[in-house]
């Protein structure tokens, strides 16, 4: 058996709690899911796989339809159905049972039910309406896991017409004492903004509250919303430029917890997000651009060319410098950075420069 398959089998119990023995480290050799995965890896043709999966689906369908099937057994059946769908085989008969599992099971069973629903259904699926009351109930639960599960599925799939029914509950979670709940609430509101922006216009002030949240994760989540809104209307958020610059200074200076670091680089994806926001705010605006010059200089200085993620930060920094109102000193440093890209032995960096669509603001060419 390949190392990848072995690692998959080892990881599944802890992820999905399938083993009957708590703390078990390996997927039992008698597990039906384990047998299915092993059986598929031993096949030599697509035709054999189709025959095996079809037999598996027939077996799953018989069991989920049986009145004697317990919720614990239903959880294991849903995981097997998920695996079959991941391989490209339809298991639509299991969709309604996934919803029932999310509605009626224990916390661990609900977890698998919610996971199956989020993978099986889309926002326009008619069965999703059956989950609305369950989401409403779980959002009001005192169990943090249930609240997290409900917010997760809301941020992934939820009927647009039902957003007004749960919006007050999601909005309320922005003040929750647990940062993971606040973060998931922000992501849910971001989803609402994408699919129904008119329905969240009245709570834009709550987005500012999230931007100033004491937890860096919540603040980071709020940047998704701001990037979207600033792309649509940069003029409406010029007053937040200083806030974004301050956040970027703190990130570049390593003020965030070590958990946000990647290969010793302080919160690189957060830096990239902030640089994109600043480039939108500073475009064709000298006074706003002047607020950014110092932190952009610092970003270029600290992002040494030694890792792919720092290349990404440098690239975004250069794009930002060439987008906002020009400053000669920064343009020279950005041009030097581009030169390093061109002279680099890494082919991808050469392509990065060759296919960039940004022009020098002074000579209007790809200098």
What does this structure look like?
By secondary structure, this protein is mainly alpha-helical. The protein has a domain at 233-366. Helix content is 65%, strand content 0%. It has helices at 3-16, 32-41, 46-64, 71-86, 95-104, 107-120, 132-139, 144-156, 163-172, 179-195, 204-211, 216-232, 241-252, 268-282, 286-302, 308-323, 328-343, 347-354. The longest helix has 19 residues, at 46-64. The chain is globular. The termini are far apart. Residues 19-30 and 361-367 have low confidence and may be disordered.
Overall body shape: globular
Number of strands: 0
Strand content: under 5%
Which structural class is indicated by helix and strand composition? mainly alpha
The whole-number mean of residue pLDDT values reads 87
Helix fraction, binned, reads: 55-70%
Number of helices: 18
Which residues form runs of ≥5 with pLDDT under 50? 19-30, 361-367
Question: What are the SSEs and their pairings?
Answer:
Layout lengths: L2 H14 L15 H10 L4 H19 L6 H16 L8 H10 L2 H14 L11 H8 L4 H13 L6 H10 L6 H17 L8 H8 L4 H17 L8 H12 L15 H15 L3 H17 L5 H16 L4 H16 L3 H8 L13
Helix pairs in contact: 3-4, 4-5, 4-6, 5-6, 6-8, 7-8, 8-10, 9-10, 10-12, 11-12, 12-14, 13-14, 13-15, 14-15, 14-16, 15-16, 15-17, 16-17, 17-18
Observed structural traits:
ARM-type_fold; Clathrin/coatomer adaptor adaptin-like N-terminal domain-containing protein; transport; 0% strand; ARM-like; 367 residues; protein transport; mainly alpha
In brief:
The protein is mainly α and 367 residues long. It has helices spanning 3-16, 32-41, 46-64, 71-86, 95-104, 107-120, 132-139, 144-156, 163-172, 179-195, 204-211, 216-232, 241-252, 268-282, 286-302, 308-323, 328-343, 347-354. The chain contains 18 helices and no strands.
């Amino acid at each position: 058996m390949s190392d990848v398959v072995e690692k998959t089998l080892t990881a599944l119990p802890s992820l999905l709690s399938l083993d009957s023995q708590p703390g078990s480290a390996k997927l039992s050799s008698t597990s039906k899911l384990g047998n299915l995965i092993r059986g598929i890896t031993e096949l030599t043709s697509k035709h054999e796989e189709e025959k095996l999966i079809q037999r598996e689906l027939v077996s799953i369908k018989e069991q989920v339809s049986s009145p004697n099937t317990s919720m614990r057994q239903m959880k294991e059946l849903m995981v097997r159905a998920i695996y079959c769908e991941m391989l490209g085989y339809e298991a639509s008969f299991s969709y309604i049972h996934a919803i029932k599992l999310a509605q009626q099971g224990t916390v661990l069973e609900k977890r698998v039910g919610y996971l199956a629903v989020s993978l099986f259904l889309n926002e326009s699926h008619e069965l999703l309406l059956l989950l609305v009351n369950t989401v409403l109930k779980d959002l009001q639960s005192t169990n943090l896991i249930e609240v997290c599960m409900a917010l997760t599925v809301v941020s992934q799939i939820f009927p647009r017409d039902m957003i007004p029914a749960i919006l007050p509950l999601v909005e309320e979670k922005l003040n929750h004492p647990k940062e993971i709940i606040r973060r998931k609430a922000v992501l849910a509101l971001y989803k609402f903004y994408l699919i129904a922006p008119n329905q969240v216009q009245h709570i834009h002030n709550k987005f500012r509250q999230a931007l100033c949240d004491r937890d860096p994760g919540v603040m980071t989540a709020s940047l998704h919303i701001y990037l979207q809104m600033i792309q649509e209307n940069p003029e409406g958020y010029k007053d937040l430029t200083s806030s974004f610059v301050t956040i970027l200074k703190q990130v570049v200076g390593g003020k965030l917890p070590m958990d946000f670091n990647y290969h010793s680089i302080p919160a690189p994806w957060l830096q990239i997000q902030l640089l994109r926001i600043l480039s939108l705010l500073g475009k064709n605006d000298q006074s706003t651009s002047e607020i950014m010059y110092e932190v952009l200089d610092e970003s270029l200085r600290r992002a040494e060319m030694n890792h792919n993620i720092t290349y990404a930060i440098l690239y975004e920094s250069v794009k930002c410098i060439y987008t906002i109102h020009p400053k000669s000193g920064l343009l020279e440093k950005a041009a030097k950075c581009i030169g390093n890209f061109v002279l680099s032995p890494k082919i991808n960096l050469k392509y990065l420069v060759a296919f960039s669509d940004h022009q020098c603001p002074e000579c209007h060419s790809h200098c």
